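User: Can you model how acetyl coenzyme *A sits in this protein?
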Amino acid sequence: MSQTTTTFVPGLEDVVAAQTRLSSVDGQAGQLIIAGFPVEELASQATFEETVYLLWHDALPTAEQLAAFTQSLAAQHTLPRATLALLEAATRQKAPVMDTLRMAAATLSLRAEGEAPSADPRRDALGLVARFPTIVAAYWRLLHGEKPLVPHPRLGHAANYLYMLFGKVPSAERTRGMETYLNTIVDHGLNASTFTARVIISTQSDLVSAIVGALGALKGPLHGGAPGPALDMVFEIGEAANAEPYLRRKLEQGERLMGFGHRVYKVRDPRAEVLSAAAERLYRSDGDMGLYHLARQVEQTAVALLAEYKPGRNLQTNVEFYTALLLHGLGFSTALFTPTFAIGRVVGWIAHCFEQQALNRLIRPQSVYVGAKDRRWIPLAQR
Ligand code: ACO
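Assistant: Here's the modeled complex, given as structure tokens:
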């Protein structure tokens, strides 16, 4: 039975296109639930491995299950030769990190001639999650003339990413900061990149293709590409007294303030709450509290000015503003912000693909034709 609706909803705003057990986003209450847990609890309690297990199995692991899962994830950290070759080629071009991650992710489905397609999608899924940090860290080191590091056998996923990037075993505070970030952004309803992954997998395409498509969607500045510009903005402002004139000028010029506004949240994004607390802890123990205070000042001024310039729009701080601050505190360059987002979100993309596959119906909406209907062909010589 099919029923055609001719109502066009730009941006599919408020259209429900999936059922999910993975996360619930309440934009009015400012509440995010991930697999049954408030984001605040998951972010502060779980290791990244526990979060991955939770999303893929809809249950917390026992100690035994966690040990086995952690081991199978760690077993896939190293990169295939084709992926390393791609990273070396991209280094010669100095390709942006996010573009390189997308190209390198695509190499993960390369098979030798005659080799059968993988019969175990869970293994492919582990391979993607395990290798994303290795790809980003290896490429970053190559770009800076350093040899990629092999994953440290005694470190968990989050700590290993820091280790492979910066070359030293991270402190407990830094590991917790990284883990908090990855847990916080692991899944978020039917956002643009997750929808992309679900559309691709709904055609019965393969998991790697779905994830490559999602990476493309995440990269855009209206989605996962905002934290770099948000941090640049704080640095350009430089001191609290400059915040108001700077931000007012941007709004007068019709520019968007990066790190503010959200399609679903009409109050402060709960992830901004979690990440601002994590950033404060990190900066207090090991950072520049002046920068943290400046960011708070910029945030307050931006929210007040957005209410003045866009009344009734409820434009509040989104996840990207404090992502920028936290990742900067952990030593990340802005070029690494969006790829690091992908290192967490790939878990949610895969979980959504599994959900879509379990009850698949090809995602194929309608369009409304608004073009001409009565043209007559004009031969080339008469045009
Ligand atoms: N700064 C200034 N004005 C804004 C902002 C902003 N950050 N966000 C929205 N507006 C304005 C729009 O210009 C529009 O004004 P108008 O009605 O006068 O034309 C109004 O608010 C509504 O904006 P829409 O574009 O309809 O809202 P939408 O739901 O499409 O936008 C989005 C959501 C894309 C996130 C938007 O708020 C934005 O561009 N923010 C800045 C980029 C950003 O921070 N992106 C990260 C999002 S979080 C994530 O994806 C992980």
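A couple of observations from the model: The mean pLDDT is 94. The beta strands are 23-26, 31-34, 37-38.
User: Helpful, thanks.
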